[in-house]
Design goal:
There is one protein chain. The protein is an alpha/beta fold. The protein folds into 2 domains: 2-49 and 387-441, Urease, subunit C, domain 1 (Roll); 51-376, Metal-dependent hydrolases (TIM Barrel, Alpha-Beta Barrel), CATH 3.20.20. Helices cover 37% and strands 21% of the residues. It contains 14 helices and 17 strands. The protein has helices spanning 78-89, 94-110, 136-148, 180-193, 214-227, 241-251, 255-262, 279-288, 296-301, 309-314, 331-346, 360-376, 407-416, 441-456; strands at residues 2-10, 13-22, 28-33, 42-43, 48-50, 52-57, 113-120, 151-158, 200-202, 204-208, 233-238, 269-274, 291-294, 318-321, 391-394, 422-427, 430-433. The strands form 3 sheets. Strands 6, 7, 8, 9, 10, 11, 12, 13 and 14 form a 9-stranded parallel beta sheet that branches. A 4-stranded mixed beta sheet has the order 3-2-1-4, with no helix packed on it. Strands 5-15-16-17 form a 4-stranded antiparallel beta sheet, with no helix packed on it. Strand 1 and strand 2 form a beta hairpin. The model has no long low-confidence stretch (mean pLDDT 95). Bound molecules: zinc ion. Zinc ion binds next to loops.
Length: 457
């Protein structure tokens, strides 16, 4: 397939007027600047940017968005939110999980995401017993991804304990119970079914050091990389101050330091919610090449805290973004809040820009695409030959893009653009959103409404 792009963001900057060639395997095999659009080639409707990988998702939480924003106790916190989330989870079976994930993935595609890393821990039945097929709910997530066309990195989750010091799981946590062997078998089951798919990747995750002590995480990592040396591995690392304090109390170490001591941190790792870091930990993550997975809207919603962005970027740290609890399904909005949190805190502007990378929005978009691709374990780190054709096309006729060129296009998308700026979305060479519409959006929305109504009944 050949397409003409009036302007296109590459990892090295913008090209004006180029021919984009995409092979039958969905991989970009040519990007060539041309004097004028060839007559027989489809002309894209506006500027082209790489699609954003969404490196952290719990799909089922999409159905809770807006339901936990009320006074619940004297001290509403992450932990009171978690209790409500556990209650919600009790009412979800495999069918509900698939319907909710399908709706979410359509919204993500329309919001600029072309891939999602699903950190999936709802493995067992509501009473805590495993399904006949332990991979049942993972296959529902897979089905939702395949029905919508979003690229998926599936991360079945290790969840063995209820807290530091190998505390037993609470009653509500029986749904999440797994051991390393089960997690790896679930991953194999998904991988076997999707071996020929260029848009499905399998890795694994440990829920947190609360739910999996370092030795168990190490066992998971060893087993995973024995099967696939390139597979991504994720963990929630330091979301809450209490989590850091509990970790210090039980081990004498902070979470990142504790993880790094037992597991070899490298570029296959994604440390989600690396929120509470001291300088040594910030350097440990940055120097290891592991991706810091930041989820700005969820971290704001849950009152987690702010990621130490300037120190991390000062050490050339790699970062990406995730929509996590899905209070927001808009890639540009996540990046905007990432920067705005720092501006409010530091009372400064353009915190992620530098003399070399002058454009804040452009810099954020490129960094998060590259980091998100690493976290997803996929060759999607920007529009370049050899990478998968995951891209978004903006509406070139939109008033917001008037007189915008180069990185001011990305700056406008992140800081000044309307939600309807994204017009077309392609994943692995296939159009999944055309003219702002996903072909299944009406059917999915109707099924989603019916499901949410019955779950909340
Ligand atoms: Zn999470």
């Amino acid at each position: 397939m050949e397409l003409y792009a009036p302007s296109l963001m590459t990892p090295d900057g913008w090209l004006e007027g180029c021919l984009l060639s995409i092979g039958d395997n969905g991989v970009i095999d040519g990007i060539d600047v041309v004097d004028e659009p060839p007559p027989d080639v489809q002309r894209l409707a506006g500027p082209v940017l790489p699609g954003m990988p969404n490196l952290h998702s719990h799909a089922f939480q999409r159905a809770m968005a807006g339901l936990t924003e009320r006074w619940g106790s004297q001290t509403d916190s992450f932990w009171t939110w978690r209790t409500l989330m556990y209650k919600f989870v009790e009412r979800l079976g495999p069918e509900e999980i698939e319907v909710i994930a399908r709706q979410l993935y359509i919204e993500c595609l329309k919001g600029g995401y072309t891939a999602v890393a699903e950190f999936h821990y709802l493995h067992n039945a509501p009473d805590g017993t495993p399904y006949d097929n332990p991979a049942e709910t993972s296959h529902r997530i897979l089905a939702a991804a395949q029905e919508t066309g979003i690229a998926l990195t599936h991360l079945p989750v290790l969840y063995a304990y209820g807290g530091f010091g190998e505390a037993p799981l609470g009653e509500a946590q029986g749904r999440f119970r797994t051991d390393p062997e089960t997690v790896l078998r679930i991953g194999e089951s998904v991988a076997e079914q999707t071996a020929s798919s260029p848009v499905i990747t399998v890795g694994a995750a440990a829920h947190s050091l609360r739910a999996a002590p370092p030795a168990l995480v190490r066992e998971l990592q060893t087993g995973l990389h024995a099967r696939n040396p390139a597979a991504p591995i994720h963990i929630h690392i330091a979301e809450q101050v209490k989590e850091v304090e509990d970790c210090l109390f039980s081990s004498g170490k902070r979470p990142v330091a504790l993880l790094a001591e037992t597991c070899d941190l490298d570029r296959r790792w994604c440390l989600v919610h690396a929120t509470h870091l001291d300088e040594t930990e910030t350097a440990l993550i940055a120097d290891s090449g592991a991706v810091a997975g930041i989820c700005p809207t969820t971290e704001a919603n849950l009152g987690d805290g702010l990621f130490p962005l300037p120190g991390f970027l000062g050490r050339n740290g790699i970062l990406g973004i995730g929509s996590d609890s899905h209070v927001c399904r808009d890639a540009a909005e996540e990046l905007r809040l990432l920067e705005y949190g720092q501006r409010l805190h530091l009372r400064a502007r353009n915190v992620v820009a530098s003399e070399r990378e002058k454009a804040t929005g452009g810099n954020l978009w490129r960094r998060a695409v590259a980091g998100g691709a690493a976290a997803c374990g996929t060759p999607t780190g920007g529009l370049a030959v050899g990478n998968r054709a995951d891209l978004i096309v903006l509406d070139g006729d939109h008033p917001d893009l008037t007189a915008r060129r180069g990185d001011t296009i990305a700056d406008t998308l992140v800081f000044g653009g309307a939600r309807d700026l994204i017009r077309d979305v392609m994943v692995g060479g296939n159009w999944v959103v055309r003219e702002g519409r996903h072909p299944q959006e009406e059917a999915s929305a109707a099924a989603f409404a019916k499901t949410v109504e019955s779950v909340l009944d």
